[in-house]
Amino acid sequence: MANVIQPQKLFVASCMALLVTSLSFGIRAGILGGLGVEFHLDNQQLSIITSTAFWGFPLAVVIGGFIVDVIGMKRLLLAAFVLHLLGIVLTIFASGFWSLFISTLFIGMANGTVEAACNPLVATIFPDNKTTKLNHFHLWFPGGIVIGTLLVFLLSKLGLSWQLQVATMIIPTLIYGYLFLKLDFPVTERVASGVSSAQMYRSIFSPLFGVMFILMFGTAITELFTGQWINVLLSNVTQNAILILALTAGVQTLGRGVAGAVVHKISPTGVLLFSAIFSALGLYLLSHVSGNMVFVAAFIFGLGVTYFWPTMLGFVSENIPQSGALGMNLMGGAGMFAVSLYMIFMGGFYDRIILKQLPAGASLDAYSHAAPGSAEATAFAQANAVAGPEILNATLIIPIMLIVAFTGLFFYMRNRKKTDVPVKHVEIV
What we know:
The structure is a single chain. The chain is mainly α. The protein has one domain (9-418): Growth Hormone, Chain: A (Up-down Bundle), CATH 1.20.1250.20. Helix content is 81%, strand content 0%. The protein has helices at 7-38, 43-71, 73-92, 97-125, 130-138, 140-157, 162-167, 170-182, 189-193, 197-203, 207-233, 241-257, 259-265, 268-286, 293-305, 308-319, 324-357, 364-368, 375-395, 397-419. The longest helix is centred in the last third of the chain and has 34 residues, at 324-357.
């Protein structure tokens, strides 16, 4: 008996899997500071733990990109389910640095496996409505971050533990695992269309793909490093730093909902240039303003990073179509890997900035765990108020470099289009 493919149920399960991925980002961002206090971790240790999710992601997404056509999307997604469940449970029972490191690695690998399988799955099950459905699917990443950050904010206000906050991810994980287990899957679109593996591999070695691969480093760092560390970096600038992440993610969710209308008026390269300009402006304001103006800055920054990730993938899909799922997965892996390295570097830099603000020979651990109201606690808070904005200011150089790069790409693609045969315009996905 032939398999019965149920596109809508597969799509709902895919969205639920991406929701777990985004919840892990939002919840981890919200509890990061608390983990440091409870387990006596400095910022460099926290950055190593956090970066583990970002290099676990590219490890899984790249491997998944190479094998998804061979083993099938269902096996990949069931592996993601197991990794998510293990990562969540191990996080809940974590006792220090290494247990948090391992559990975060599992979650990062689960997140990457979801991306490696779900992007080609959505494209395959909705071949006649691909762009709209991919937009709807990618809404769940910033949307889930909004849910996760607000959940952390509310549960923290109620005095509930970070372990319970992490445990909320178990419910959607069990739901998507159950749905994927009982559903039948089609083969990938590349396999169905007959594009050879040799053609796919040749396409990812083109110069244009190489340029986009490198630029993905900058777009991912600008968006994801800032979002993941916002609660730590701005905790001494505003009392509700976690709400800044909710605001930026909310702007992203709404922006991606109208992505089609935006890209019809502005070319993909124009959108990327626009994004770099607003990201740079938003980062500059975040590092120089305080009070309620921080939320204005967050809105501008959120507007800037809204289209980075989907437009980079959409550009590769439009201009290097034979790269298929592997091309998109390599782009995602490149971005996440760059974020992981940047986090490790900036975590140590953050600690060094704080130490410069404290008395000579001061112990970072002693000052960070000083009794509230003490001279040490006050000095540490003042040091953090200097260090957070300084990190954001240092990161500002990345979107400024992207402005230059995307300006060049904009004119290059415009000139190339004049000599090429016109092709159908592809919306942001």
